[in-house]
Every structure is written in C-alpha cells, then in structure tokens.
Amino acid sequence: MPGPVKIQDLLATGRLELADQRSNRLESEILLCEALGVSRAWLYANSEQVIEPRQADRYLDLTRQRQAGQPIAYLTGHREFWSLRLKVNTDVLIPRPETELLVETALELVPPDASWRIADLGTGSGAIALAIASERPLCEIHATDSSQAALEVARENVQILAPDRVSLFHGSWLEPLDGKFDLIVSNPPYIAENDLHLLIGDCRFEPPGALVAGHDGLDAFGEITRQAVGYLEPGGVLAFEHGYDQGKRIRSLFENSGYTAVVTKRDIESRERVTSGIWK
Ligand code: GLN
After folding, report:
1. In the chain, fewer beta carbons within 10 Å around the N or the C end?
2. If you measure from the C-alpha of residue 191 to the centroid of ligand 1, how many angstroms do you get, rounded to a whole number?
3. 150's torsion region: left (phi>0), alpha (psi -120 to 50) or beta?
C-alpha cells in the first residue's frame, strides 16, 4: 500500500482479495487482527484508525496466501479446539470440530474423579490429550507421535495448558510407552492415498503423514489395534476416530482382534465417525 490507510478501507480491500473464500468477511477480519496483533472488538471500535503501510502490507500478504489456499489456522498460528487455544503450524494436522466426538466418547467412559492411565496416539498438536486433560485432572495422559516436529508443537501446547498432566513420547503409536492403559484413543491418518479429498481445501497444506494411510486408509488402524492388545488393562477401551465410510471395516477389525462391546458413534452430520471396543 502506498500510504497510510484506514482500517475500514483495508478490510474492504482484504475482502476483495479473498473473493473466492466463502467467509471472506470474517476471514479478512481474522487476518487483520493477526497482522495488527489486536482483537476483533478492537477493529470494530477503531475502524477509522489509520494503519502504517508496513502493517497494511503484512495484512495483504496474509490475504494473498489465504486466497492461494493456505489454511487460516496456519496463517494465524492457532486454532480453537474444545475451547482450548492450540498453537498449530504446518508440522501438525489442524484440529477438526468432528474430533471433539472422540473427546466426548473418552469423557463418557472416564468418571470425573478417575485417575486412569490414558494414551493418545499420533497426538499432533496435542489436541485430544489436552482436551481430556482439561476435563479429567486426575488422569495421567501419555501422548505419542512419530514426528519430532509435531512433538515440538505439542510440547508448547502442553507447557501452556497442562504441564504436569500430559507426557510426550517420540515413536510409533504405542511403541515408546510402558505399562498398561485403561483407555487408548487415536485420530490416526485414515485417508486412502489416491483419495481426491487430498487435493482440495486445508489437506493440501497439512503433513501427509498425519492424513494418509495406505491404499485404503486403514493401515494405521490395523497397526494400532495389534499393538494395543499388549497395552490395555483387562476391560480397557480402545477408541478411534475414522472416516465416515470406514465404520463397518473398523468394527470388523475390532471384533476379529478380540475386542467386545464394539460400538460406533455418529457425528453431528450423522456420519459414522468414532468406534470403540473393550479389551476383555
Ligand atoms: N478428518 C480429516 C479430513 O477428512 C482427516 C483426519 C485424519 O486423517 N486423521 O480431512
């Protein structure tokens, strides 16, 4: 921008830059808040305020990246999940609202005063582990990830949100953990490698290792289900988030591996989304 510009004019320019985005009004405001380091309430109260060209340029750069498809959460560096503000970057999957169903499933199982040992596998930003930790303060939560870069992000979130209650481990699923667990949860990668879904939206910018699992998307579920047998207490529960069309195959996997009371829950769009089973 050549000279100083008012907030309201800058927002109008941002909205035009973001013309292809469905929520371009909201997104133009979120990105301006990010560029200026202010809240949306402040923007509304100061719409006549003049902004320096350097800040305006930073804002327009963010809107251009967004228009090119970069997820909002990566541009702002954070995302709300279970009312927690989580740091995110391109090393981790952006937490999705549907994953709150896995958290709800866990909370229905764990009594409020229980001191269970719980594992969250492929924790990414730490979203699931931290959401459970925020609701079940007496539980001991162990979270793993095979990506060191993802664990760095999780570490920052854990330090802010639950420093004493979530421990982080580097490795594949349960391998870095010892002992038995009362509950194991995971939102592993579950998209098939040739799924066209990977070519649209936020997925294009997310780490493939957090999204893609073999030719049918089921590789991680098989691996975790096999490993979990040695890590679950008798009566312990394994619960997965999975794709809306994978419920039947996940139930068969659980049943063929010796789990009982296998149930699938549907998300708010009535799609099969979370399956759990009890280890006998
Ligand atoms: N639910 C995500 C999506 O469809 C996938 C998350 C995952 O693979 N665990 O974009």
Report:
1. C
2. 7
3. alpha
Categorise residue 142: left if φ over 0, alpha if ψ from -120 to 50, beta otherwise. Answer: beta
Among 99, 190, 204, 212, residue to substitute to test ligand 1 (most atoms within 8 Å of Cβ):
190
Q: Kindly tell me if the per-residue pLDDT of 55 is higher than 80.
A: yes
> Are 109 and 132 contacting, i.e. CB atoms less than 8 angstroms apart?
no
Testing ligand 1's pocket by substitution, the residue of 81, 88, 94, 96 carrying the most ligand atoms inside 8 A of its CB is 96
- What distance in angstroms lies between residue 10's CA and the mean position of ligand 1's atoms? 35
- Coil/strand/helix, residue 14: helix
Cβ atoms of residues 154 and 125 within 8 Å: yes
Q: Which two tokens stand for residue 166?
A: 């979530």
pLDDT digits (tens, 9 = 90+) for 99-123: 999 999 999 999 999 999 999 999 9
pLDDT tens readout for residues 177-223: 999 999 999 999 999 999 999 999 999 999 999 999 999 999 999 99
- What predicted TM-score, i.e. pTM, was given to this entire model? 0.94
Q: 132 vs 20, 38, 83, 182, 277, CA distance in Å?
A: 37, 30, 12, 14, 19
| Residue 176 pLDDT exceeds 90 | yes
| DSSP assignment of 129-181 | HHHHHHH-TT-EEEEEES-HHHHHHHHHHHHHH-TTTEEEEESSTTTT--S-E
